[in-house]
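Fold this sequence, please.
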Amino acid sequence: MADLTRDDVLKLAQLARLELADDEVESFKNELDEILHYVELLDNADIEGLEPTSQVTGLVNVERHDVFKDYGYTPKDLLENVPDTLDDHIKVKRMIS
């Protein structure tokens, strides 16, 4: 894998909408080069005979069962505690303009 050039770093910065100072360009170039060399090491790792793994704990379908609990309240009872409702829903101020 070729080392990144200054222009490569500036192009990446542009794509990420970052403004970099001259000293930052060199710093990022060095850091990105190290990251890419590490990825190249991982890419060349011998994985012959290994099976893909999605999890390593050995647990299968660990879920809790839903249990209905009746607390003696109806949705209408609970809506009596909110400041404003609309069609059996809690009405709030508009959050997106």
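The chain has a mean pLDDT of 90. The first strand starts at residue 85 and ends at 86.
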